[in-house]
Write a structure and sequence with these properties.
Layout: H1 16-35, E1 60-72, E2 77-88, E3 95-98, E4 103-109, E5 112-113, E6 115-119, E7 122-126, E8 136-145, E9 149-151, E10 157-163, E11 167-171, E12 191-200, E13 204-207, E14 210-217, E15 220-231, E16 238-241, E17 244-249, E18 255-260, H2 265-273, H3 275-286, E19 297-299, E20 315-317, H4 323-331, E21 340-341, H5 348-364, H6 370-378, H7 403-420, H8 422-435, E22 440-441, H9 443-454, H10 459-466
Parallel strand pairs: 1-12, 18-19, 19-20, 21-22
Antiparallel strand pairs: 1-2, 2-8, 3-7, 4-5, 4-8, 6-7, 9-10, 10-11, 11-16, 12-15, 13-16, 14-15, 17-18
Helix pairs in contact: 3-4, 4-5, 5-7, 6-7, 7-8, 7-10
């Protein structure tokens, strides 16, 4: 449909100039269309996630991020540059990145200046020429300022978390990564990373993946990290501080690189020493470790209000550090980091399995069995908050980390185990993480997968435990 008004015919004898103007206008429109300057739309400001509809952009698929970060610990200022290699999945005249705070100094697309617009947490880049579907392009954004800390709707803090002694933890679940680099900030768009961080010499800068190099120049140390397996933005991290580094290998040969704050070394040493044992146990349960390296980042108490499964090396502050929590966060390397939820409503696939890993660890290490733990949880009254909503349907963003997602999610996993029997259950779990390794999966994908593996529909599990309201009746 063409909604432009029709060109009117000029009165006879006076139409020469008007006709020439009309011809010029048509020629200009045709030329613009040929150059690609006005082809396509602006892309969406969000991927319509049911809980975080404004996050992400479905007009392109990021392949790789290169981050160059320079941090001044005394002032708290960060200078940053991000290079994004992406593929357009539709014709685009512009596209959005998620970016909260700090100042954008310049931007380019394919080495040509791009127009920049800021609206809340949306950063829109408009290249000189449109991008065509299937085209791979490179965007660069240079920025600086003091990164923000975000207080989530559940009261927890994420983003760029500063603490005494030049310490920083950059944590991103669910939205905080956009405080320290522009990105397509939704778990459905995973990419590989190169992250370079420059800090005062004497501090460590730890990130995901493997340490490629460390160089020192004029009192500043630059750490270069590379993540070769795809990673969701919320799993990216930077930890800056006076860390002591532990190196080693797992029994299967995976390199271990752990960063332990000297303030907490003594209190955490026994559990840190068990990391190879824990990873060997999890490989037995879930299959081969999915990444090129492993480790932990152990920070002082209150450095963050929670532990987080940042890829390759989870972050655990002292007041959230014990063997059970380490087992939980390591389990996320399979459930959440390798097999990443398609939307934030699929969070129970992360937390239900990680919680159930705790139950299995207890069962195998002289603690209560998974059945006993299940029965203890089920004995709680119908008014307990674990029955507040079905684990697959957290009603709001504030509920994405609610107890039904964790505890009742684990109860769903236990009910699957009951339905299949131990041998088939363990085979199913290993098959699930193998088939979806380094990808995304939804609850619908999981339900279909389990039913196919079981050879029947587990109607009672899905209708009662996964999607049912309130406390299920005893069966």
């Amino acid at each position: 449909m063409d909604k432009r008004p029709a060109l009117r015919t000029a009165p006879k004898g006076r139409g020469g100039r008007r006709t020439r103007l009309a011809a010029a206008l048509l020629a200009a429109l045709a030329a613009a269309s040929c150059t690609g300057g006005v082809t396509g739309g602006p892309g969406s400001a969000g991927v319509r996630d049911p809980l975080f509809p404004r996050l992400g952009n479905d007009g392109y698929d990021v392949q790789h991020y290169t981050l160059d970060l320079d941090y001044d610990a005394s002032s708290g200022r960060l200078k940053g540059g991000v290079t994004i290699v992406a593929k357009a999945v539709e014709d685009l005249s512009a596209f959005d990145l998620d970016f909260a705070g700090m100042d954008v100094e310049s931007a380019t697309v394919d080495d040509e200046p791009a127009a920049v617009n800021r609206a809340g947490d949306e950063l829109t880049l408009r290249p000189e020429e449109g991008l065509t579907r299937g085209e791979t392009f490179t965007a660069y954004v240079r920025y600086s300022g003091r990164p923000r800390t975000i207080t989530d709707v559940d009261g927890s803090e994420e983003g760029w978390l500063r603490s005494p002694g030049g310490r920083v933890l950059a944590l991103g679940e669910p939205t905080g990564s956009m405080t320290w680099f522009p990105s397509n900030n939704h778990p459905s768009d995973k990419a590989t990373y190169d992250i370079r961080i420059t800090v005062p010499d004497g501090l460590q800068a730890v990130s995901n993946g493997e340490l490629v190099s460390r160089t020192v120049n004029k009192g500043r140390a630059t750490f270069s990290w590379r993540t070769r397996e795809p990673m969701a933005t919320y799993l990216a991290t930077v930890a800056i501080g006076p860390y002591e580094i532990d190196r080693g290998r797992t029994g299967s040969g995976v390199p271990i690189y752990s960063a332990i704050d000297p303030e907490v070394r003594r209190q955490t040493a026994d559990v840190v020493a068990r990391l190879p044992e824990m990873l060997a146990w999890e490989e037995k349960e879930f299959g081969p470790y999915p990444f090129s390296s492993a480790g932990l980042i152990v920070a002082p108490a209150k450095a963050s209000g929670y532990a987080l499964e940042t890829q390759n090396r989870p972050v655990l502050p002292l007041d959230h550090f014990d063997a059970t929590t380490v087992v939980h966060e390591l389990a996320h390397q399979w459930f959440g980091d390798s097999v990443t939820p398609a939307t934030w409503r699929d969070m129970w696939l992360n937390e239900g399995f990680a919680q159930y890993a705790e139950w299995l660890w207890s069962e195998d290490h002289s603690g209560p069995s998974a059945q006993q733990i299940f029965e203890g949880e089920y004995a709680k009254g119908g008014g307990d908050d674990i029955w507040a909503f079905p684990p697959a349907e957290p009603p709001t963003a504030a509920d994405v980390s609610g107890r039904p997602v964790y505890v009742r999610g684990a109860m769903v996993v236990h009910k699957i185990r009951e339905a299949l029997g131990d041998e088939d259950f363990h085979a199913l779990v290993r098959d699930w993480v193998r088939v979806h390794r380094h990808g995304n999966a939804s609850t619908k994908d999981f339900v279909r997968f389990v039913d196919d593996e079981a050879g029947r529909r587990l109607t009672a599990v899905w209708d009662t435990w996964l999607y049912g309201d309130g406390k299920p009746e005893a069966s």
